[in-house]
What we know:
The chain is about 70% helix and about 5% strand. By secondary structure, the chain is mainly alpha-helical.
Amino acid sequence: MIGVYNYTVVLTYLSLVSAAAGTMFAVNGHYRIALVCLALSGLFDMFDGKVARRKKDRTFEEKMFGVQIDSLCDCVAFGFYPAIYCYLIGVHGKAGVLAIIFYVIAAVIRLAYFNVIEITRQTGEDGGTKYYHGLPVTSISVILPVVFLLNFITSDKVFYWILVATLVGTGTAFIWDFKFRKPNNKELFALVILVAVVMVASLLYKKYIPASPTIEFGEL
């Protein structure tokens, strides 16, 4: 079979599987479980690089495959899936659709740029870098669950605009050229705890997001 199937890519594949499962949950109206799947995708992606680098005897082809498969899975998990999720919970109308389109394009551009930079780095030197250029796409797996909690304390219309602003703001941060320091192990652990707390809070809260859109298409 073509491809790579050793332990270096297991977490990357799990991230994709979690996003696919989340999409199905969201389509069927299980929005909070779908959000847990997004958080799990982010968790897997946070550590897939660390796991891959533990294998010191990776061939050049394995390294390049790792770069490509990671970005392709990220495109689904943190580009396409969050956009579909937001649409399903009510980000409709002209403003909503434009925000979703912008977000997806920004995510794809960022991932393509990352591939170019990472391939250049790996063909030139072995060491890593301490900074990202712009906000990594994985960040949406933390941002969206936190923003989701605002649904419990705001009206549907206010929550709609919060989601639109989140998509536009996050998409802009994806392609804005600024240095973003890579989190260390302690900070990664803190992020995991934060997302876990948010997930528990959203699952235990009594109010559900309505299955019907918050703003009907064409209203804006």
